[in-house]
Amino acid sequence: MSNLGQFDSDFYQSNYTIDNQEQSCNDSNAQGNLCGSRKQQADEQPQPASFVASEMLMSPGYAGQFFQPASDSDYYSQSPYIGSFDEEPPLLEELGINFDHIWQKTLTVLNPMKPVDGSIMNETDLTGPILFCVALGATLLLAGKVQFGYVYGMSAIGCLGVYALLNLMSSSGVSYGCVASVLGYCLLPMVILSSCAIFFSLQGTFGTVSALVIVGWCSLSASKIFISALNMQGQQLLIAYPCALLYGLFALLTVF
């Protein structure tokens, strides 16, 4: 039994005492107090500027709007760009396309005896001439003749020749666009002749007579428009002759 008692005393023997326990408790309490003081100091520190700004923005006294500057009515009223879009002309007018003038020029060509308005005919309008050139090439294509290159080539060279001739004959002069516009509009009767070639052949007496009539029609309309637009009274036959030569080439393409 004595050995057992000695074993128990040796087993439970330790250097740990009550004083050490009290000291460890004091250390843990001190550490807790230190953590608490640090937490209290962190709570007492001011919040970042972003949070302060957000609180200020969300305060009831703030009457502004986020990311929207205050409008200045005086600045917008004095701006030169206000109302400028309402004063702009339509797009077709800026492009020089006037359907009323196109219709009047077409009627003038179809009726050579109709009085000509020189102010309208002196405009550089290429919408109708391009349309009639394409129509002439299309009708020739339907008749089995691919002549687009000849149509465009003879039109450009013929307009250049008539342009040079009119500038030599008239005192006021004329632009190349005006010449091309008048000669292009007067190509409309030739489109009618080429449309007839789709349904029957023009290689005969009827076709020859029809071609001569159409050439005279085109040259008469073109010369009348030129003398009215350029004030070249008494020179209609001199202008009609080169125009008849030009339209005679288109008649040869149509008939043969």
Tell me about this structure.
The chain has 256 residues and is mainly alpha-helical. The chain is 70% helix and 0% strand. It is built from 13 helices and no strands. Helix 10 runs antiparallel to helix 12 and helix 11 packs parallel to helix 13. The longest helix is centred in the N-terminal third of the chain and has 27 residues. It is globular, with a radius of gyration of 50 Å. The chain starts with a helix and ends with a helix. About 5% of the residues have low confidence. It is a multi-pass membrane protein. It comes from Daubentonia madagascariensis.
Summarize the structure.
This is Protein YIPF. With 256 residues, the protein is mainly α.
Task: Please give the structural blueprint.
Layout: H1 2-11, H2 18-44, H3 49-57, H4 73-78, H5 91-94, H6 99-110, H7 118-121, H8 127-142, H9 148-169, H10 176-185, H11 188-199, H12 205-230, H13 236-255
What's the multimeric state?
single chain
Number of helices: 13
Mean pLDDT over the full residue set: 76
The Rg value, from CA coordinates, equals: 50 Å
The rough form would be described as: globular
SSE pattern, N- to C-terminal:
HHHHHHHHHHHHH
| Strand tally | 0
* Uncertain runs: 46-57
Largest sheet: none
Report the portion of residues in β strands.
under 5%
Structural class from helices and strands? Answer: mainly alpha
N-to-C span:
148 Å
> Roughly how much helix do the residues carry, as a percent range?
55-70%
